[in-house]
Input
Amino acid sequence: MFELSPTTIGSQKKRIVYSKIPWDSQYLGNTIVEINKFEFTTKQEAKHLLFTITKQLKLAKGDLLFLKTSPLDIKHLHILTSLGFYVIEEAVEISFDLSHWNPNAFSQHLMRGYRLVSATKEHLPSIKKIAGSAFTHDRYHLDPNIPARGASRRYIGWVETSMKGNDKVFAFVDTNNIVAGFFIIAKKPDGVNLRLAAIDPALMGKGLGKLLYFMMFTLLKKRGDTTIQTQISLNNTPVLNVYTYLVHPKITRIEITLHYCP
Output
């Protein structure tokens, strides 16, 4: 991904710090702006800052502001929702350690006729097709103000960018080398971040999601990558259940995302 350049409107105690998100804007066909900090003490101050950023960026119908915050900041949330922000998603950041994780405890997943291989350009069309249809639980698909087609293009673009960049993309293939899913990870100084994964929606309900994650965790452990982090929407209950089944992750942060459309 590209480096963002935060911009500040206002003073130290009354300010909005924001970043334009060019890759989301590219695929969604509008202007997407993340509010990194929204600091105010009164509703009037918040209203003025919101008016200023909308005018300064020339935001119009179809554009989107979003921010992520703690669900415990009730007063802050009350003011934001009274100004037109709406809660679209709740998510958790989780972490777990594979040092003592034993793949043999899940012997039912050891031999199932599927492999996890480094993705190549031959796999890419199938992976893009899955990415364009598998993420209907995400906040862009759930927001009625965002065109579903644009939300799907965002994930296709994510796969393309990962294949060209520093992320590692794996194809989940059967014995005929047909792609049934994929996994994208990123190596960080403090561990591995699980960025994106999916099973072909046409194959759901066959236990392949558990197998995909089992194989990914097994591969990471063999490589010596045992410190793992990721973020997941609470809307995505199937994958939450997979994490609980395989590794019993630790929740390190809970946040909600709010959207605002001018």
About this structure: Residues 148-164 form the longest helix (17 residues).
